Structure formats: structure tokens, C-alpha cells
Amino acid sequence: QVQLVESGGGLVQAGGSLRLSCAASGRAYAMGWFRQDPGKERQFVAAIRGSTYYADSVKGRFTISRDNAKNTVYLQMNSLKPEDTAVYYCAAGSRYSGSYYYTQRAYDYWGQGTQVTVSS
Hints:
The chain is an all-beta fold. The chain is built from no helices and eleven strands. The model has no long low-confidence stretch (mean pLDDT 96).
């Protein structure tokens, strides 16, 4: 069982930056970030498992990284837009998921979420 705790969310103006952190209680093969607006499905944002992967909507603006010594994954978010507003969830996967890294089923454990609000 891996427990995940996110931090770093908040309110920022459009064009600003935030860095999200996710501390895991144990090691995971893959780590990812998803986000969810009220009434909408949870969407893939980024993942890391050696290589990094990004949703087209955040490519070039967001960077995912991990510190294996600390079992922590980060999401650096730059040039934020109002449409980035959502609850951001950290996820951890214990097995190789092939090309399904962007799907929720590739991950076994989830954090409680952290709110990111971007004002225009």
C-alpha cells in the first residue's frame, strides 16, 4: 500500500507558476498527475516512469520530475491559464502499463487532490 500526499496548490493569476509536490510512502514504478473539473471526467496531465509523458494541453508549459531518494514527484506548472483550473491528483502505479500510462487504470494509488485555481 502506497499513500500519497499532494501539496502546493493554490490561487495564481494567469501567466503565473505553481509547483505541485506529491510525497509517497513507498516506491512506485510510475507516477502521474491527473486533474478534474467538477462534473467532468478525470484527465491525464503528465506521467513519469523513466521517460516523461504529457497531455497535449500542457506540453511545453508543465514539467514532471521525481526525486527517487525522497519518493516524491513534482509538477512544475508555468504559463498557467484559467483552463488549467482543477483539482490535481497524484497517482502511483506499481506495474508497467505499456502505452496506457495516460489512463486511470494504470495507477493503483491516488492522493486526495489539491486545488489549483488560475484567475484571468
